Amino acid sequence: DSDAYPIDLTVSPIISEKKNTKSKSPKGKGFSYLSLIDGKLIRHETWVECEARVKGARGAKFKKAMNLADEVEIKKSWNIL
Questions:
Q1: Does the reported pTM lie above 0.85?
Q2: Per-residue confidence at 16, pLDDT binned at 50, 70, 90?
Q3: Which tens digits make up the pLDDT trace of 48-79?
Q4: Which residue stretches of the chain are H helix?
Q5: Are the beta carbons of 50 and 35 closer than 8 angstroms?
C-alpha cells in the first residue's frame, strides 16, 4: 500500500542530487578541446590529444568547447585573454 510511506519516493532528494551531478559538458564531438597547464593554453582538435596532455598533470584544466564562442567563454573563465 503506497499510503504506508509518508515520503513520496519519486521526488527523493537523493534522486535530485544524482540528476545534478551529471556532466555539464554537452554530449558529442566538440569543436575543440582546451587544456591549461602552468599558464600555457593549448587548443586540441580531439579529446584524445587533450587527454594525453592533461593526464597526470597536477593542476591541469581542460574543457570541451562546442563552438568558437564557447572557446572565448572558457578562456575568460580561466582568466586568459
A1: no
A2: very low
A3: 999 999 999 999 999 999 999 999 999 999 99
A4: 13-20, 47-54, 68-77
A5: yes
42 contacts 35 by C-beta, under 8 angstroms:
yes
What's at 9, amino acid-wise? Answer: L
Q: d(Cα 78, Cα 80) in Å, to the nearest integer?
A: 5
Identify the residue whose cell numbers are 582568466.
Answer: 79
Question: Position 2: which residue type?
Answer: S
Say what percent of the chain tops pLDDT 70.
68
Residue 68 CA, chain-centre distance (Å), reads 17
What are the backbone dihedrals phi and psi of residue 37, each rounded to the nearest 5 degrees, phi first? -135, 125
Cα radius of gyration (the chain): 19
